[in-house]
């Protein structure tokens, strides 16, 4: 592109503002579209500055005068959303509440304490009754780049917003929800929320859930008349920072057939742990004692490192790991301080995959009597590949959680869907009713609020 011509158009645009603006904007837009970015840095900057100086929609064109925003569960504007907690989501028979004939508070998305909404105001569309808005999730750009990466951006990604009240030019989406677990998306359809009896599955317009990342945002976009308006909200609040870190050290007894395969730990158990705790804003990552020999380290999964350790003296597959042997393991493999220095009873959670526990019926154990056992959990051969994760449950104990039995007397907090249920019900495995949820309501043994309790644990750090 000839830069003289570009300059002419820019100049013409600047001079012509007062006389023939709509035409000028169109022409500049077309010009920018036709030009590649490589020969235009100056021009783009100048037009951008000009438009910035003029403010949004200086010419009263539509829909750039439209506004789009995210609303929290009480329909107040918000710049952050959290993952759905699946609280109030299940009926007494562990059935997911998603009957399109039900009212919103009796549908799991509408009942979730982390539900949110999209609100569009377009005064040029008064009386249209409904409008469509696209929405998706993205991850922050990787260091050195500037483009966010899509996390869940299906080709059909719209939701219908209903003019509320009628003839107001204000359009409201049904309640929406973010999840950390792709399994949830594949196994939970959502009613439209429009009272039309329709239900949608993942990947279709009108579906009311998206996979999100705690290191990203949620985005909405409304397009009309060749232009668009977008809204963005962080996943979890950033100021103040809501997210916290959850450092894990993982040890695996060497050379035992009963110990889960490394690939199972990397690709199934660790991701399960991660998505359970990401739901409440905790980033679980693996940490390693700097003194660990390279030969004992194994890397995999999400840039994770685990450590192979020898079984303690006297360990037998016929009796399983005894408490004394567990103490020996915990003593010789201390936790790490926040600076990575090995310190007995420091602030990392240690998961020991030992294959077999004594008694052999135990899937996992947190001794919970302090000392070298502080933050140390022991897991037998049960992983989220064969059942729900014993490791995530035992970690909950290390994070000061009691069992979630009995359930709270009020609300629909069925204990069977809680991570901390004692004695998981295998009939829920393979459905979204699996025991992996954590809630922010007093319940269970000691009436603990799980969200608040975990976040106060010394094993979580500011994000
Ligand atoms: Zn337990």
SSE layout and pairing:
Blueprint: H1 3-15, H2 21-34, H3 41-54, E1 67-71, E2 80-81, H4 108-111, E3 117-121, E4 130-139, E5 149-152, E6 158-163, E7 170-172, E8 177-179, H5 182-187, E9 190-191, E10 199-200, E11 209-211, E12 216-224, E13 227-235, E14 244-253, H6 262-278, E15 282-286, E16 297-300, E17 304-309, H7 323-332, E18 349-355, E19 364-365, E20 376-380, H8 390-398, E21 442-443, E22 448-449, H9 450-456, E23 461-462
Parallel strand pairs: 2-13, 8-11, 14-15, 14-17, 14-18, 18-20
Antiparallel strand pairs: 1-3, 3-7, 4-5, 4-6, 4-12, 6-7, 9-10, 12-13, 14-23, 16-17, 19-20, 21-22
The site of zinc ion has 4 residues, from helix 8.
Kindly name the structural category: alpha/beta
How many domains make up the 3D coordinates?
3
Give the overall form: elongated
Give the C-level CATH assignment of the largest domain.
Alpha Beta
Question: What's the total count of β strands?
Answer: 23
What is the count of helical runs?
Answer: 9
Q: What low-confidence regions span 5 or more consecutive residues with pLDDT below 50?
A: 1-6, 15-25, 56-62
Global Rg: 27 Å
CATH topology of the largest domain: Collagenase (Catalytic Domain)
Percent of residues in helices comes to: 10-25%
The CATH architecture assignment of the largest domain turns out to be 3-Layer(aba) Sandwich
| Percent of residues in β-strands | 15-25%
Mean pLDDT: 88
Task: Please describe the biggest sheet, giving its number of strands, its sense, and whether it closes into a barrel.
Answer: 9 strands, mixed
- Terminal Cα span: 47 Å
In CATH, the homologous superfamily of the largest domain goes by the name Collagenase (Catalytic Domain)
User: Which ligands appear in the coordinates?
Assistant: zinc ion
């Amino acid at each position: 592109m000839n830069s003289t011509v570009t300059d002419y158009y820019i100049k013409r645009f600047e001079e012509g503002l007062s006389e023939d603006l709509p035409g000028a904007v169109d022409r500049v837009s077309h010009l920018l579209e036709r030009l590649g970015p490589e020969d235009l840095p100056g021009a783009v900057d100048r037009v951008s500055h000009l438009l910035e100086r003029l403010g949004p929609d200086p010419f009263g064109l539509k829909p750039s005068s439209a506004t789009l925003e995210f609303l929290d569960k009480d329909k107040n504007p918000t710049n952050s959303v959290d993952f759905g907690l699946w609280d109030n989501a299940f009926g007494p028979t562990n059935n997911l509440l998603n009957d399109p004939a039900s009212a919103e508070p009796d549908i799991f998305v509408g009942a979730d304490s982390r539900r949110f909404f999209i609100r569009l105001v377009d005064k040029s569309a008064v009386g249209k009754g409904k409008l469509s808005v696209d929405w998706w999730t993205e991850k922050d750009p990787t260091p050195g780049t500037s483009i966010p990466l899509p996390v869940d951006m299906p080709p059909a990604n719209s939701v219908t917003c209903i003019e509320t009240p009628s003839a107001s030019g204000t359009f409201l989406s049904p309640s929406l929800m973010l999840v950390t677990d792709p399994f949830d998306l594949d196994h939970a359809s959502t009613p439209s929320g429009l009272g039309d009896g329709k239900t949608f599955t993942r990947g279709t317009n009108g579906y009311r859930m998206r996979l999100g990342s705690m290191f990203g945002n949620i985005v909405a976009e409304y397009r009309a008349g060749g232009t668009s308006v977008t809204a963005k909200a962080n996943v979890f609040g950033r100021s103040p920072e809501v997210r916290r870190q959850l450092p894990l050290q993982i040890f695996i007894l060497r050379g035992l057939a009963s110990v889960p395969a490394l690939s199972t730990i990397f690709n199934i158990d660790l991701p399960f742990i991660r998505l359970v705790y990401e739901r409440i804003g905790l980033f679980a990552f693996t940490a390693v004692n700097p003194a660990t020999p390279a030969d004992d380290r194994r890397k995999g999964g999400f840039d994770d490192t685990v450590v192979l350790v020898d079984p303690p003296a006297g360990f037998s597959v016929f009796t399983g790991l005894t408490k004394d042997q567990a103490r020996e393991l915990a003593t010789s493999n201390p936790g790490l301080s926040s600076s990575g220095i090995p310190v007995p009873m420091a602030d990392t959670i240690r998961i020991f995959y030992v294959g077999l526990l004594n008694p052999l019926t135990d899937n996992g154990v947190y001794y919970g009597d302090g000392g070298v056992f502080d933050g140390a959990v022991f897991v037998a051969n049960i992983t989220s590949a064969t059942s729900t994760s014993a490791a995530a449950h035992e970690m909950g104990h290390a994070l000061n959680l009691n069992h979630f039995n009995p359930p709270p007397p009020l609300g629909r907090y069925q204990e069977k869907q809680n991570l901390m249920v004692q004695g998981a019900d295998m009939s829920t495995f393979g459905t979204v009713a699996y025991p992996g949820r954590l809630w922010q309501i007093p319940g269970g043994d000691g009436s603990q609020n799980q969200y608040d309790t975990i976040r106060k644990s010394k094993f979580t750090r500011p994000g």
